[in-house]
Amino acid sequence: MGLLSEQLSQQQPLDRWPGVAPAVVTDTNDPDDVGRVKLKFPWMADDVSSAWARVMGAGAGNEAGLFILPDVGDEVLVSFINGDFDQPCVLGGLWSKTNLMPGEVPASGSGEKPQVRTWHSKTGHILAVYDNSDNKIEILTSGGRSIVLSDKDKKIILSTNAVTITIEDNKLEIDGGTEISLKASSKVTLKADAELKLEGANINIEASGMVAVKGASVQLG
Q: Which DSSP category does 4 fall into?
C-alpha cells in the first residue's frame, strides 16, 4: 500500500489506513455524551463527515483524566484503530499558520530549560506552571483575576483588579482598595498576642447593647 495521497490521486477506494491523517473537527455534540467528535478529512466532500471519533486524554480512565475536548474548526491528528476508517481516534490538536499557538506568558529565566508550561482556554483563561527560577504556578482569568502560588517568594497571592490578598509564611496582608468588610452571623474575634492597632481618619464603634473597655491601663484622649 502506497502513501495515502497516492491512493487518493489514483482514486482507489480505501477501507483501511494503517497510519495517521489530519482532520478538522465538525461536531462535538456527542449523542451518547462520551466525549466524541465528528471529523472532516481532506478527501471528504463538504457535506460528509466521519464516524464519531474518540478523543485521547492524558490519564484517561473511569471517571478520571484530563478532559479537553477540541472545538469545532480545530485541526487534529487522527489515527484509526486497527486501520479501520470507522474507528477514528483523535490523538491531539495541531498548530499551524492558521491555527496559531497561544501567546507566551511573560517569564524570567527565558534561557533556562524546562521553562514555562501553559494551558490557554478559548475564552482567555490561563494556567501556567513555571519550572524555572520563578518556581511558581499561576491561574489567570480572562477578566484579570489571578492566583499565584510561589515557592520562590514563599507567597500565595489572590488578586482582582482592586483587591489583593497576600499570604506569606508568617504574614497575611489584605489590600482592599476602598473598602474591607468582615461579617459574621454570631461573633468576630480579633486577637494579637503583642499589639492590636486600629488607625484611621475617623474610628466609629457602635453597639446596640453595652460597650465594655477593659485593660490594666486605659487611656482615652
A: H
